[in-house]
Amino acid sequence: MIRAVLDDLISARAAGTPVALATHLETGTQALVFADRSGGELDLDADTVAAARKAMVSDRGATVDTPAGRVFVHPFCPPARLIVVGAVHIAEPLVRIGALAGYGVTLVDPRRAFASRRPFEGFSVVDDWPDDALERLAPDPRTAVVTLTHDPKLDDAALGVALRSPAFYIGSLGSRKTHAARLHRLRKLGFADEDLARVHGPVGLDIGALSPAEIAVSIIAEITRTRRRAAVG
């Protein structure tokens, strides 16, 4: 590994930036692939760059057959993130199950009386307005965003930022009627139907969930399905 590639890899890992190391298996030449760029002594074609970015989502290495020979891509990534907007009852099991599933969980709610409750002790809690919080948190392709408040002032603010980001999953709690009204409001903000198709609503897999814990399980299940299918699609 040449020093420049090693230094960039060390810097990316220290900063918590997802990156994949691509190595030509015959020559040993290497390059790094980030979410928005790539570089190094190894020239990468578009298919190899795409495969490296899929590896960054799945956390699984892969060997790619290229016109120049076989290339192995090895992802180096921090934990995937789950941003939950709304410190409501469903958020209590959701943050715990999300953490157990390996996500770095952040709870966002400007209502301090909600967010400071004991069930959320030990989790990262942000009490800024959701759009400000998400702008700062900067959802990336390894981030899931779930809104739970039922309050358009909070949920829509978060969804607007999430839809402009490359987050791999966006979900919002509410009935079909509530979701239809939500999509109508987002269209008025300028989002196209293609954008709105990214919002999972009602959120979670349809498993007949009733309790907050069951709903949380359905949400994590849908997040998992979306993430893993995207990695191999």
Report on this model:
The chain has helices at 3-15, 46-58, 91-100, 112-115, 130-137, 152-163, 176-188, 193-196, 212-232; strands at residues 19-24, 30-33, 38-40, 62-66, 69-76, 81-85, 104-108, 124-126, 143-147, 169-172, 199-200. The protein is of the alpha/beta class and 233 residues long. The strands form 2 sheets. A 6-stranded parallel sheet has the order 8-7-6-9-10-11, with helices on both faces. A 5-stranded antiparallel sheet has the order 3-2-1-5-4, with helices on both faces. A hairpin with a 5-residue loop joins strand 1 and strand 2. Helix 2 (46-58) packs antiparallel against helix 9 and helix 3 crosses helix 9. The radius of gyration is 19 Å and the shape is elongated.
Topology of this protein?
Elements: H1 3-15, E1 19-24, E2 30-33, E3 38-40, H2 46-58, E4 62-66, E5 69-76, E6 81-85, H3 91-100, E7 104-108, H4 112-115, E8 124-126, H5 130-137, E9 143-147, H6 152-163, E10 169-172, H7 176-188, H8 193-196, E11 199-200, H9 212-232
Parallel strand pairs: 6-7, 6-9, 7-8, 9-10, 10-11
Antiparallel strand pairs: 1-2, 1-5, 2-3, 4-5
